[in-house]
Design brief:
Low-confidence stretches of chain A: none
Low-confidence stretches of chain B: 36-92, 290-295
Helix content of chain A: over 70%
Mean pLDDT of chain A: 79
Structural class of chain B: alpha+beta
Oligomer: heterodimer
Distance between the termini of chain A: 42 Å
Number of strands of chain B: 19
Strand content of chain A: under 5%
Number of helices of chain B: 7
Number of strands of chain A: 0
Chain lengths: ~160, ~350
């Protein structure tokens, strides 16, 4: 990959990859490191991509792998104060932040790909290499957990 | 929900500029390019000889000072037993050649040597054993409040098909620390005929500080590695063995979480397909796939294998919650936490019920 191509992919996808890493590892320092490592891998890879959409999917795949690897070290599991880095603008958002902070990575990454990256269940299944049924059930579980949290805090479940 | 979620994440942005970010990547890439990519095919006989000499010298020094490293090690690890697992199969001498191949790879760095002993693989998983031998004059010994040494690394196939990675310290003996690394792929991206790419990044330990601090450690000790090793999977991968289950043993149950409370659901265990590193349980149920609407997802209750010596082999599911296929079949794929001899397994226990297998 040339430097110009790298620059172009960085301006296209750096923000997305960083936000995906944040959703997984839930702290900004590790997310920065993972984002840098993912683009370094992209620059060094000998893969030939047929479209920029494939580059995006490849980067997401690599970011998930790097995030998983990082969380394997037990002392890093404690760095999860996600809501220290983003300030909520209203009370409902505070509940949402608390929810995202508590959500296990295997759920939060699917939710992020579904909501933010707007991938379909089938596309997530291909990217994460898990069956579509598993993607669906994990999404349902994540949304049920949020519903419970909202109801507990006295909010209605509208829009979940 | 989606709008709120996206609004929240729209406010998150990387802190450095793209120019600075690109410059950091190009700098790192330049450094990496300077390093020779080390391949398995390169002879390392001379290095091996040096390692043997070094190991012998270290053992002598340890004996002369009478320093009880293991005692110190245990005191540091007493609250970290999850990091120090006892894989008796490996300790008794696993036959790498049976399900993989023995390797004799040795790499020297400023303060330590890395030795890769062997690789085992089945259709979906690969398992590598390696050790780190610190130089005798390096400060590697147990330190109060420090985390154990860990190798930060990743293992992937050349086509980047690996979906999970696990690295654990098996054993510490003097200055020699033995680790295993295991990674899992999928049936669509088999390991057979592929090449495993191991990226050893760094050795690390330190004193953790509270989550209120930005820095991970108040003190940290790091040894860089930045080594890439390619291991071709050019050995035969054994076919999974189908284990017979007698009709009387077939009835078991799965767990459905209803309002976060576990509820038992009847199921019949139809088949177990066992490989040296992984296993697939196939259940027949009356459950149709109602996926998204009802959100039904099932899991296995506690389960483990037992071998002929009564040793328990624990497992980790890699898809913990599973929906049923349209015909009611449910497949649970699990990773074994250590390689096994297929002939030695005699039973599987699921949710307290032991099922004999032949």
């Amino acid at each position: 990959m040339t430097e110009n191509e790298l620059e172009s992919y960085i301006s296209l996808y750096r923000g997305n990859i960083y936000r995906l890493a944040i959703s997984y590892v839930k702290n900004k320092e590790d997310a920065e490191d993972i984002t840098q490592e993912a683009f370094l891998k992209l620059y060094m890879t000998k893969e030939i991509f047929v479209s920029s959409e494939n580059v995006r999917a490849w980067l997401i795949r690599v970011t998930i792998n790097l995030s998983k690897n990082l969380l394997k070290t037990s002392w890093r599991k404690k760095r999860t104060e996600f809501n220290e880095y983003i300030s909520a603008q209203n009370e409902r958002e505070e509940v949402l932040l608390e929810f995202i902070g508590q959500l296990k990575p295997k759920y939060s990454v699917l939710l992020h790909l579904y909501y933010y990256e707007e991938y379909s269940v089938k596309e997530i299944s291909v990217i994460c290499r898990i069956p579509s049924a598993t993607v669906r059930t994990r999404l349902v579980r994540a949304r049920n957990q949020l519903k419970e949290l909202l109801l507990k805090e006295g909010y209605n479940e509208k829009g979940i | 929900m989606k709008k709120e979620y996206n609004k929240l994440f729209d406010r998150i942005s990387p802190q450095s500029s793209n120019e600075e970010f690109i410059s950091q990547i190009l700098g790192k890439a330049e450094k990496m390019k300077k390093k020779n990519r080390i391949s398995i095919k390169k002879p390392v006989v001379a290095v091996f000889a040096a390692v043997l000499t070094l190991t012998a010298a270290t053992v002598t020094v340890g004996a002369a000072t009478g320093w009880d490293f293991n005692g110190g090690f245990d005191s540091v690890f007493k609250n970290r037993s999850e990091q120090y697992i006892n894989t008796s199969v490996y300790q008794s001498g696993f036959d790498f050649e049976k399900y993989g191949k023995e390797l004799d790879l040795h790499y020297t760095f400023d303060d330590y040597t890395l030795n890769i002993h062997g690789v085992i693989a089945d259709k979906s998983s690969a398992y590598v054993v390696y050790d780190v031998i610190f130089d005798k004059d390096y400060d590697y010994g147990a330190k109060e409040n420090y985390t154990p040494w860990d190798m930060i690394m990743i293992m992937e196939t050349a086509d980047r098909a690996m979906i999970s990675n696990d690295n654990k310290l098996i054993k510490a003996d003097g200055n020699k620390f033995t680790f295993y690394h295991m990674a899992t792929s999928t049936k669509e991206n088999p390991i057979e005929g592929n090449t495993l790419v191991l990226e050893f990044m760094r050795l690390e330990r330190g004193i953790e500080q509270g989550i209120k601090y930005d820095e991970l450690y108040s003190e940290v000790q790091t040894l860089n590695c930045e080594l890439t090793v390619e291991i071709p999977v050019d050995f035969d991968i054994s076919e999974p063995v189908s284990l017979n289950i007698s009709d009387s043993d077939k009835k078991t149950y799965l767990i459905d979480y209803v309002n976060n409370e576990p509820v038992k659901v009847e199921a019949e265990l139809e088949k177990i397909e066992l490989s040296p590193l992984s296993c697939e349980f196939v259940f027949m149920t009356d459950i149709a796939d109602d996926g998204l609407e009802k959100g039904e997802a099932y899991t296995l209750d506690d389960f483990f294998f037992t071998d002929k010596n009564g040793e328990i082999i624990s497992c980790t599911p890699y898809d913990y919650l599973i929906g049923a296929e349209e015909n009611g079949i449910m497949r649970f794929n699990v990773n074994l936490n250590q390689p096994i001899e297929l002939d030695e397994i005699c039973s599987v226990t699921i949710g307290g019920a032991t099922i004999s297998i032949e």
